[in-house]
Amino acid sequence: MMKGITGLLLVIMFAGYAGNARADEIDDYIHVQMARQQVPGLALVIMRHGQLQRVQSYGLANLELQVPVHPDTLFQTGAIAKQFVAAGIMLLVEDGKIRLDDSIRTYLPETPPNWQPITIRQLLNHSSGLPTNPNGDIRTEYTPEEMLRDIGKRELMFAPGTRWNYSNAGYVTLGILIKRISGMVYADFLTKRLFAPLGMQTARQIDDLAIIPNRAAGYQLRKGTLRNQEWVSHAANSTADGTLYLSPLDYARWEAGVHDRKILSPESWAEIGKPARLANGGTYPAGFGWFLDRAAGQDVWRHSGSWQGFQSFIIRYLDDELTIVVLANSDSARPVTIARHIAGMLDPKLVQPKAMPIADRNPRVTDQLKALLQQIAEGKTEYEDFTFISKQDLADMMYGYRKTLNMLGSQRDIALFAQGESGGDQAYRYRAHYDNGLLEVNLSYAADGKISGLTFVPVDAWDAPIQGADDNWNVPPPED
């Protein structure tokens, strides 16, 4: 398998990579999107039946040095790295060193007593009740023990296993667990047990001080100008919630391994693909390091990533055995939109329909949202109106959302585009037209009537296809 991928890569590199490649519809589309989204560099990987069909590079990996993107250019993963961490945990399960339904305190006894009900399974599928983010300064150095102690000081958002909440803090904890059990930091463990066996030759931990060949620079779009990614501490770039470098070829080899069910047993792969089961008997469509979806009558695994001026997305259409990976080195990139559009270019049945407003049969909720958006813009939201979110996470969210709304200007129109049930909550999806752009707002209410979820997603057009809200939760807000 690896030889086949490498051989095909060489064919593509000589026949289709460098700047004189014959343009086709996909190339034309990507060039347009890169210009529109102000993306310096981008890489595309297309796999079918576990075989590499296309690896294409566009633009620049480094603006200052004018270095082009290559198939071996290293991009930061962001949260896509969670799927590798999940596979690493399953390796420890198969080794007989941990069990999915054991309490995390069995292995990390220094964690708080109220973590006793939290299982490894719940950390993997984000149903643990831990907050979204560790409460730490990403510019401060700290030890893993200090980070774990800090997470332990945070309140649980809900009783473990009763709800779903995306939690970077949970995966930080899993990385500490890997080191405690294996004796290796999580990235070294993944290199030995996962990356090396699959031939992922350049996958590695982020290290700003190391000399790393083919490393792309990350960029942040601020007031219409691209700037270098902000510096973060070594500690913040060593946690298991998304701190790896991978090249397009590494992703191709990873997908080949996932497709062929390598490394892990069939039982372990089945566990990875199970939705989170909640205490009320319901489920949430999230497995171990993957979001689970349906499209064109088939199961879909997908995940996005965002970190330090990089955006990434991977989507797997299981029945079609089609996988698309898009990597970009600007936080203004929208790889989710690009990957899904390319899927439709490859197969008409995967074309996403244009979005349209639906009948608003509960205008009271719409009025509440209008009032909420005004409160956010004025910095007047109240913590008591929200539930299942920590004060720190809410404060961070509102800080970014306020800047977003102030940048967009006055609201012209707002309409309901979708509504339904999600994890036991009532969920609504709106689009709002402002003087300076369009915004999608995902809003959910818990049974007690409080706001249980709120995400802002930029959209290019009023009728742009609707994407999964959980693919876009981490779109960075504009900075001053």
List keywords for this structure.
480 residues; alpha+beta; Beta-lactamase; Nuclear Transport Factor 2, Chain: A; 2 domains; 7-stranded antiparallel β-sheet; disordered N terminus; disordered C terminus
Explain the overall architecture.
There is one protein chain. With 480 residues, this protein is of the alpha+beta class. The protein has 2 domains: 1-353, 3-Layer(aba) Sandwich (Beta-lactamase), CATH 3.40.710.10; 363-464, Nuclear Transport Factor 2, Chain: A (Roll), CATH 3.10.450. It is 31% helix and 23% strand. The chain has 12 helices and 18 strands. The strands form 5 sheets. The chain has a 7-stranded antiparallel sheet, with helices on both faces. Strands 15-16-17-18 form a 4-stranded antiparallel sheet, covered by helices on one side. Strands 4-8-5 form a 3-stranded antiparallel sheet. A hairpin with a 2-residue loop joins strand 1 (41-48) and strand 2. Helix 1 (2-17) runs antiparallel to helix 8, helix 3 runs parallel beside helix 6 and helix 3 crosses helix 7 (186-198). The longest helix is centred in the last third of the chain and has 18 residues, at 391-408. It is globular and about 55 Å long. The chain starts with a helix and ends in a 21-residue tail after the last strand.
